[in-house]
Amino acid sequence: MRKLFLSLVLILVINGCGYSLRETYIRSKRPEYLRKYSNGLASPLSQEDINKAIEFGKDNKHNQDVIDYTYIISKDNTPFLGFPQNIYILISTNFYLIARYVAKQVRNYESIDMNYINFLASLPTFRIEVVEQIAPYGKIEYSYQIRKKFVLLKDGIRVKESAHNPLYNDESPYYSTRFSDSDLQKLVNKNIQQTMETINQLTEAYQKELNISSEDITKTPSQNIYISRPNNLYDYRDIDLNSKYEIVVIYEDGETRIPVDFSKFK
User: Fold this and answer.
1) 226-248 per-position pLDDT tens digit
2) What percentage of residues in the chain have a pLDDT greater than 90?
3) What's the predicted TM-score (pTM) here?
């Protein structure tokens, strides 16, 4: 029994250390100016910063993890003798969104839309996403992620989410991140649009049937429908580097607090 117990502990330690080493290796691939950065979130980005973000994306077109982990905070949340669990916090800044977009475009041999780049550079908001990754039996290849509820605290007080919902061609730029729900969003939008088109067709049929004037009918728009805004958007103006910030990940039976140093994210 003692040997079995020690074996289980050893497996957990080895798996935990191995994954940490992987993250460390990925983060070491960041350019030096991002590794040493300490000036905090910036918006709008200067032309120099825009150029650096574009270069960062191009240089890592086949190394997406380098871009993502530059903006990820991770915390080991493994319970005693439980399966390995890690909390990942992604902070989607303007710089990150540009780099990720450029990497995807270059990787797919597609052109870069500079109008979109300038849109991303001037966003008044950034997004925070939190997921928990669980690896059953310590097997990373079988791991799965669960999106977690959380609150952002500033000196112990909850930070309100932004009232802004930046869109480009009726789409949110925040549905293209590592923890993206863009596929689900597109499916929902498609289904809703089909429903709205059906409603309008029925409305026209009833209009003809009942001989109702078109002036008395208010149609539901069926084009350019955007159903929901991403949650957990925050205003750059609410971030003060002199304040203390925490992410509080909420569970049914408790919470986990993770400090966030925004000075390290460009």
Assistant:
1) 445 688 999 999 999 999 999 99
2) 55
3) 0.75
Whole-number Cα distances in Å, 61 to 68, 99, 101: 12, 9, 10
DSSP summary character for residue 211: T
Contact 199, 220 (CB under 8 A): yes
Q: Which residues of 117-152 are buried (b: 16+ CB within 10 A; e: fewer)?
A: bebbbebebbbbbbbbbbbeebeeeebeeeebebeb
Of the CA atoms within 13 Å of residue 82, those in its CB half-sphere come to 10
- Cα 261 to Cα 246: distance, rounded to the nearest angstrom: 9
Beta-bridge partners for 125? 235
Residue 229 tokens read as 């805004």
Of 172, 174, 223, nearest in space to 197 by CA: 223
Structure tokens at 170: 């009726």
**What residues contact 200, with CB distance under 8 A and at least 6 apart?**
219, 220, 222
Contact 134, 85 (CB under 8 A): yes
Token output for 215: 């002036």
The residue length of the chain stands at: 266
